[in-house]
Amino acid sequence: MKKIIGAVCLFYSFSLHAQQPTDTTASPMRFDLYNYTHQGLSNLFNEQLSPDTKNRITIDGEYSNNSNAAPALMGYSILLKSTISNALKDRADKLIKKDLKFDDFLKTGISYRRYFQKSDLTMIVGYHHRQMRILKAPKDAFQTVFYGNARFEDQTADFSNITFQNHIYNQYSVGISKKINYSTYQMEFGVVGSLLQGINHLYINTKNTSIYTAPDGEYLDINYDLTFNGAKEGAVKFTELNGVGASVDMHLAFMNNNKWRVALDVMDIGQMIFKKNPYNYTGTKDVRFQGIVLPDLLTFSPQTFDTLNLDSTLRTYLPNKSGNRYYVFMPFTAQLVFSKPINDKLVISAGLQYRFMPGYNVFGFAKVNYFLKKNAVISGSVGAGGYSLVNVGVDFTKRWKCFDLTVGTANLLGLVAPTHLPGTSIYIRLASSF
What is the pTM of this model? Predict the structure, then answer.
């Protein structure tokens, strides 16, 4: 490992002498002023090459979950498929007012940037593994799933307007970015296109849906309007795609040297199609079931319909099964950030973020970057909105001759108290410029 690091540093030192000197007429803007103004590290445009370098390799990873009620540990348990304790269920139940909202986001991979001096363009290529889960459900549905329908004896539990999405896929990206200097300001723009390799997908949506439990559980009256689409679970060969699609990321920024900067990023605008052995269940019916027990709705799947102990007549009331291809519009993200350096050590930023998810409120945040030294930055942030309550974040960056490392969180409170507070976040970025 020491030999590899030494070789990279030696190549870096050699390249500094071998490259042409920088243009003295260029903007005197510090290259790193705006590298840390966004929330998280999932933005391919949120880093710049070090001065006098033409290459940059970045390894990054980020995980977050946000909720208006579910403690952070509940998100970990869902991700790792471990047991959810009664204490966690009870805390979430007390916090839910009308609907439970939850999302989690995992992105990890590697990217490479190459600067071409002749065209003044930067090429970006990358690979990332992506996972996203999105849930919006009424409180009655949460209580039925986690506590059973006994508490709704002689009552009707509302299951309307449930949305659940599970996206697991690989992302292969290539794009360009460029900075243009004008007389009084500078402009940055970039575009990245991606091929999406679907690994697993699940989509559940209900409209007017309810379950009535008769006294002593004698019978259930179920009224449902259900759409259920899914793709085969499990990693596949690249030539045997469960699903395939494409997406695009776009970046546009304007700045006036070290005085201010405003940046707009739109990420993950795209679509996937699932046509290799998909399964679909749809139906709108009213049916009475007598003498049956609801299956474990925590592991609801296509097999749920098959394991119900029903006679042939009642089975005709279940959703209709088919194997039709279906399309998915990806949950994109749009973010607008304004940043202003106060001096050489301090940069303040304010931003708005929107994600294409049901019931999502615009997320607003403010962030402060303080340069302890030219090669060390500490940042603090606060935000609210989306599916979360109040988020408090912190991150730290250290740069060496050939490497830089960033670690941080956009939700420190949930990270340190995951059994009591909803939402958490952690991210890391290791990069080398040469």
Answer: 0.85
